[in-house]
Amino acid sequence: MTHERTDQHTRMAREGRTLRTRDERERLCPTPGASVAQSPTLPRNPDGWFLHVPFLQRVVMPGKAEDRRLAKPDLKVGTLDLYADSTVGAAWAGDRVPDVRTLWHAQENAQREKTLQKVARNQRASGRPVKGERSNQALWQTIRGRDAALAWRMAALIVTWAVAQGIQVLVFEYLRPYRPTRGLSRSRRTNRKRSYWHRGQIRRHVRDLALRQGILVVERHPAWTSQVCPHCHRLAERFSPGGSGYPSRLRGGGCGWSGDANVAAALNLKRKWDRTFRYPTKAERQAAELRRASNGGAAVNPGQVPISV
């Protein structure tokens, strides 16, 4: 590449021009998939000096999502639903789902909340904070380090799974702005906020890693994906298997299908990609509200709902 650059400079000087042609710029670019070492740097941090050698890799862009969908309807698609405790991925081959994978990170989420509870106890014990001074710096550094490591680990697992399944497009749900929930403790509210930010980190890391494998990453709006049955495509009921707690299960209103709500959301994202998702009608939404009101605000009577898929 160095000889090519020198030859081009000589040719440009002889021809009296200052700009390279498109073919000349193309010859200076590295071969797709090959890594080219760049100029090294010597950064310094509190632990000492480190030699950093960056590498440049040329990646072929997959193209626009809608153009690829219309040009190749048989693309292998993977749909992903990110949640605080888990990530559910569904691999699609046409209308079939050969693999559904659940990646759990509930333990890391619980560890973060325990550390945030410790931060809250220390702040209460120390009294009013001093302006301009940061407290619990070691604990916050631990939280940030755990979140960064977990985000990269989850992104690597997702991309590895996508490559093994031959997936060409990964469909994520679009993360709307975070809306805090009232009535929660400070540590739990902060943990939910950081969990929401953490999902955004995973999505960004997946986009960077997937691009090197030629996998396109897109987003679709998640409206109603976890509330519509993936089989009969009608508004379903959310419920809790034990009758209390977060309603993590879903029961189809028309077919009786029962399964995990996050799995249903991942399956429904495929119809968001295909532009065939059926939104609940106004009459269905009103009927669901009446059923919840008759049950005292509960989604459905858990004793009348099967909990096995």
Note the main sheet.
Answer: 5 strands, mixed
- Which spans have pLDDT < 50 for at least 5 consecutive residues? 300-309
> CATH topology of the largest domain, what is it called?
Nucleotidyltransferase, domain 5
How many DSSP H or I helices?
Answer: 8
- Determine the fraction of residues in helical runs and give it as a percent range: 40-55%
> Count of DSSP E strands?
12
Q: What is the domain tally? A: 3
Order of helices and strands: HHEEEEHEEEHHEHEEEEHH
Could you name the CATH class of the largest domain?
Alpha Beta
CATH architecture call of the largest domain: 2-Layer Sandwich
Verbal overview:
The chain is an alpha+beta fold and 309 residues long. The chain has three domains: 2-57, no CATH class; 65-220, Nucleotidyltransferase, domain 5; 237-304, no CATH class. It has helices at residues 2-15, 22-28, 65-71, 106-126, 137-165, 186-212, 261-274, 282-294; strands spanning 35-37, 44-45, 48-49, 55-57, 77-82, 86-93, 96-104, 169-173, 216-220, 237-239, 249-251, 258-260. The chain has a five-stranded mixed β-sheet, sandwiched between helices. Strand 2 (44-45) and strand 3 form a beta hairpin. Mean pLDDT is 86; it is low at 300-309.
List the helices and strands and how they pair.
Layout: H1 2-15, H2 22-28, E1 35-37, E2 44-45, E3 48-49, E4 55-57, H3 65-71, E5 77-82, E6 86-93, E7 96-104, H4 106-126, H5 137-165, E8 169-173, H6 186-212, E9 216-220, E10 237-239, E11 249-251, E12 258-260, H7 261-274, H8 282-294
Parallel strand pairs: 5-8, 8-9
Antiparallel strand pairs: 1-4, 2-3, 5-6, 6-7, 10-11, 11-12
